[in-house]
Amino acid sequence: MKKSLILVLALILSSNSSAYALFGKDKTLEPEERGYVGTLPNLTKQYDTSEPAESSPIFEKTKNFHSANELKPIPREDPAFVNIILKPDKTSQYLNDLNDFILMLEKIYDSIENREDVQKFVARVYFFKKNADYFRDKYATKPESYYVSYQKVLDLSLRANAVSQLRAEAEKYKPYLAYSGAGKVYNSENIDQQLEYLKSEIESTIVILKEAKEI
Fold this sequence. Notes:
It is a single chain. The protein is mainly α and 215 residues long. The chain is 59% helix and 0% strand. It starts with a helix and ends with a helix. The relative contact order is 0.08.
């Protein structure tokens, strides 16, 4: 009986020793079971504050840029500068129109001076009147309508048209009219006198139009 008890105790002690040998020691992990074992990077380095770099200008500084001594004087004594830069524009549409009227009036004047036939005279006056009518409407609501040159063109247009109609009617009705009484207005002496009056008005108007261009 005692031998059996001793044998059982020996088996128990032997089992405890084996269990300690099996579970008491730390288990050594293999390298692939340990995870990352290298050196971690410094993640705060990229967020370090840096001093702003000082940039240099790409252009050189101009000495005394705002100094009056550095500015070139305006060449007011230079005729080319005065005529081109300082004088007002002389090519306005109104002045161009006046120039066209000067040419028309010169042709009417020459027609009277050279005693052109009635048909040519009437045609020149008709062309002048049509342009004058357009000229009147074009500037009727503009400041140019107050100019003397504007009014002279319109007045002369009416005068020239009246003389033109007189010559045309005289040419048409002269075989049927006696040059006395009511028909006296169509006689050659009266027509020549009206043409001379018209020539004088054309001359004075041309002078005014040319003066307007030179102002």
